[in-house]
Every structure is written in C-alpha cells, then in structure tokens.
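ARCHIVE CARD
Drawer: 12
Card no.: 0347
Subject: one protein chain, sequence and derived structure
Cross-reference: see card 0346
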Amino acid sequence: MAILDKINEANDIKRIDPSDYEGLAAEIREFIMNHVSRTGGHLASNLGAVELTMALHLCLQFPEDKLIWDVGHQSYTHKILTGRKAGFDNLRQFKGMSGFPKTYESRADCFDTGHSSTSLSAAYGFARARDLKKSDETIVAVIGDGALSGGMAFEALNNIGQLKSNLIIILNDNKMSISENVGGMSKYLNKIRVGDRYNEFKGDVEQAILSIPRIGYPLAKTVKRSKDSIKQLLVPGMLFEDMGITYVGPVDGHDVSLLVDTIEMAKTKKRPILIHVVSKKGKGYRIAEKYPQHFHGVEPFHIETGKAIKKKEVATYTDVFSKKLVALAAEHEDLVAVTAAMPDGTGLTAFAKEYPKRFFDVGIAEEHGVTFAAGMAAAGLHPVVAVYSSFLQRAYDQILHDVCLQNLPVIFAVDRSGLVGADGDTHQGIFDISYLSHIPNMTVMAPKNRYEMSRMLEFAVQYRGPIAIKYPRGSAYYELKEHQAPIELGKSEVIYSGKKVALICVGKMMEEGVKVYRRLEEEGHSITLVNARFIKPLDEEGIRRLAKSHDALVTVEDNVYQGGYGQMVAAFLRKQDIKCRITTLAVEDRFVEHGSVPELTHMLGIDADGIYKAVTAYLKKNRKS
C-alpha cells in the first residue's frame, strides 16, 4: 500500500498529492476490510465515511483543531490517519485499540463517544470554551442522519443557532443508522437529497430578472427582500436555517476535492454552518453496500462471501425473545412492541413482519420510546420495549416518572445486559440492576437459561405493572432444563441443595456457578446453588432461610457493586440483624474496557475461577466443622 505507507502520524495526509486521493481512499477501504474481517468491528459505516474523513483531515490541523464524532464507530479512517494503523491488528481485542474515539489513545481524539446524538452538544461546549478563551481552533461535529433523530441533537441545535462564531456540523447522511431510518427527519432529508434545486433556481431567476430593461434592478432588490419567503418554498435545509444555522448542500460524500472546498469555505464563516453530506454506507464492498444493516457491526468474516467465520451454534437470548414474543402476540392482541432504531439487533424484525401495525420503531430516541410506551399502556395496551441495556439508561427519567410512578404495565426487554465484550466501556450493560431496582413499582428478573427466558416472558405478559427482563448478549444457556420450578413473584430457585456455603447467581452468572458447583462436587464438597431469578422484589424469605442454614452466602452478578443485587442482600441481612457472612462478587467501581466476555469476567474475578476462590475460602475456614 504505497500511498498509505506515507501516512504515519496526524497531518501526514496533507503531503499526499491530490491526484492520489482516489488511490488512498481505495487503500484505506482495503485496509479496513482486511482487518475488520479478522477482528470484527463496525464495517459499513466506516467504508462510507472514508472520503469525508480524508477531507476533514486535509482541512483540519490536529490536535489543535477539534473533531467530534457522533457515536464514534465510524472513526476507523480517522484512527488510520492519526498514526494508529498498527493498532488495527488488535482492534476491539482485550488490551488492544478501541473501536471508538478515546482520548487516552491519541491527542487527535478530543472527546470520548459511543452513544448517539451527543456530538452537537459536545461541539457547542468546545465552541463556547474556545470563544471564552479567545483561541481560534476549528471545531467540527460529525453526526449521522439517524443520530439527528435523537432529541438531544435537537436540544443542541436550538442552542447552536445562537452562536456568533464558527462551528461546523457535518451531517453524514447515508439513509441508515444501524437499521433503516424512520420518522419525520428521515423523510425531510429524503426531500433534500434531490440536489441543488434552490441554488440553481436562484441563479437562473436572478439573471433573468436583472436582464429585464429598466425594471430589472429594482425588481431584483424587491425579490431579494423577500428571499426568505422564496427560501421557505424552495431551499433545502430551511429547518436548520430557521434555527440560525446556515445550511450547505447536499454535497457528494465521496468527492474529496468538493468536500475540501466546502469545508474550507465553511471555516471562513463567523456563524454555525451545517454541511449536508450524502454518502453510501458500505461503499467499496459490494455485499456491504447491498446489505448495510448486516455489516454495521460484524464478527470476523470471509471477505469473498461476507459470511461469518464462526458458525452460529445455538440460539441467542435475542433469538429466544424474538420467537417467544411472536408466539405471545398471537395470544394477546393488546401486546405491542417498541424499538429505538434497532429492530434487527433486539430481535423485533420477526414481530414487525408478523404484526406490522403493532410494531413501532421510534428511531434513535429511547426517551421518547419509553414515554410513548407509557402512553400506550395508559390507553390499555401492553407494550414491550426492547432495547440494549446501555441505551435504556438514557431513558432513566422516563422509566421513573412516566412508567413506574403511574405503575403502568410496560415490559422492558433489556438486551445486552451485563458484559458485552468488544464494544467496550460505552456499551457494557453493567448498570441496569442499579438504575432499575431502586425505582418503586419496578420488578426486575434475570433468566438462568433459554427455557427460563421464555417462561419469564410468559410471566411478564400476565403481570400488570412495570417489569424488566435482563438478559445477556450471545448464546442462550441450554443446561439445567430439568430445573423449571414455577415462576412466582419475588421467589428464587434452589438448583442444588448442599451445606455450609450458598452460592446465589444472577442470570448469566449461573453458567459460572454450575461450573463451580461441579468442580467442588468432584472434590467432595456439597454447596447450595441458587438461581436468584428475581432481583426485585428480593426473595427475603429465601435469603433468610439460606442465611440461617449456611455459614456463608456468596452472590455473583455482572453488574456494578453499588446498587447491585449483592449489596441489596447484604443490606437486608444487616437490617434483619441476621448473622451470616457474605461475599459479593460484582464489578467494582470502574468502567470496563473492551475484550471478550471470558477475558473480562476473569479480570473482574467473577468467572468460575474467581467464584471458586471465594467459595473455597469459606470451606477451608470450616474444614473441621
């Protein structure tokens, strides 16, 4: 890769001859495909943003200028152009390079991102700080058309329009977020994408009017005075113009020279400018262009076919949820489903196909989605909100005030709960027990395996209040099928009865607990293994019995300790003045980096080895008893 070899640190691209831009773009795409096919990662979004990123690097000076990526999963070209090519060998691997912008990785990353619709607010903050400090750096925010549907983006635009200094917004419009975009903003941008209608019309009209003898000039002045009225009818982007933000575009997102000229022009303006860039998600890789939603985030794959290298062996929890929800919908006509721009990721595509009138995709707007569900529940329907754990936390206020305060029957299907792996700290679902369980009226459950997942959904559909089922990413555990005690509100399940130590596992942690139980059994020890099932309400009577009949309790969860299940159990024992030793295994007070789930659980001490160590510590103390 002769051209790409010349780029080894930030700003090196400025030394590339313009005649080589097309070749450089091709090399970058090949580099990204080769590495992502081996490590996995976000592919289609990065392939679509290559020329745009090149143009930004040609116009900006790093690290002095500031570039803020919304979400950030499309920042691979930015990383390549800032001296991080070598990091792609370990992209998204444990202790390797993140798939998102990280300030600890490079001074060219000025702001950590990972969730949608945040870049405009951050950029506005950078701009206000620049103006107060009287510095002159250029500040650019890149936001996708899907992210622009998020309420936070509109809140930021409302403020940015008041700015009297330069701020450049790049609207990277590829008609997609993770899935196809929906809603009014998507329709609005569809109308704009037709091209330069207004600019062409404006030039033709002005020339025609000026050419009229004697009255041409005064008539042109009159027309100019009423240009805002004409704009309202014809100009693309008037939504932004009316907010005080100059709109430019649409611009071809794959024409480097045109992008450079447009960005350089925008840098000269003492006001906020929005450049509407139209790009193609997955560009340069035919299969990704055809199926961009399938190549948003990928596991390692064969470039020739686009098929995953690792074959799917067993159904995931998302698969189990998807199939069961469709079956339940046939029995319950009031059941409706809501997603925030992720029908594929949350498993609602099958529901949408089977019951299109009962399916609602609200776009990237979790807050709106939850309150929308609350409205339907208040009107007599039974909504299921399917959302990733790390994204549901964005709607905390709506869960509390709009759902739980009114005790409305909304089911929260909390996907990707616990450790999710390669997406890293912005996506780990390790806070949901804490932010859900302390809200009055909320019930929180976690299934031990695929069979219990289905039965918990059955329970939730019959339940008449707010209820959340939290389940992990990946293959659904299929062991312990024979253990299917009836699900009763607030009741845990004893899997194996033993002595001395009771090991209580939450959800996915049961897989590790079973390994520990079997290992100890081989060593001649018999402990009690308990499936927590209900995080809230806590099985107080069950915990009381366990505490009185065992020397110690060990709780295990893939949630942070603060506000977690183990802390709730310990608090209950103290409140009841029950004398029983307890060890809580959970995520300590930290954010968790990217890596495989087994690597992360081992690092955190909540895998089978960590649990074994905690349990045997008690067994050794009581060896003679």
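Annotation on reverse: Residues 515 and 608 are 6 Å apart (CA to CA). The longest helix spans residues 21-39.
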